[in-house]
Amino acid sequence: MSFNQDQQIDADEALRMLELSLNRSDNIDVVMTLESKGAQIEGESTRPFADGKKRMAVLGYFSAVRADAAPGGTKSKLSMNAMLIVRRCDAATASIANLIKSQASDAKVVLSCFKASGDSSKEQESTLEIALSDARLANYVLVTGGSAGYPCEILAFAYRKLSIASAPQLNDGRRGAVRMAELG
Prior knowledge:
12% of the residues lie in helices and 40% in strands. It is mainly beta. The protein has one domain: Pnp Oxidase, Chain A, CATH 2.30.110. A hairpin with a 2-residue loop joins strand 1 and strand 2. The model has no long low-confidence stretch (mean pLDDT 83). It comes from Pseudacidovorax intermedius.
């Protein structure tokens, strides 16, 4: 089974995405901020942050960008698939579900990845950040199954711009020099 390109999540894809997210052994903490119409949807992540805002814990994500190349060597146009995000249902679930109803296209989504070194201080900085701008919740799935045993949601965000910031983690735990990419 593979993910198809129709921007819809069928039951097989939902269960596969759920399994991929639950079978992680990478020791990476992933959290998400989600804002729409200037208001942040607060999650239940217990990790503290310098700005005092609550984040949403994320189990996993999937994104693909491809260059549709025409024969002959001209520069290709980028095609960006929806960003799929898997998370446990929590207090933010109903607020997120309202985004599919309203079809707001001003959402800002930021995924922040932290190397799990036991340091959960609010001063610790992420080593990978993925930001979606002008995003819209295009597909929303509630699912349980596989080895999860608890309700999860899969969010598919369509977006106009994808920004990636990555940095190494230095030996003393601080974040090193940040590298940037902007797609879209």
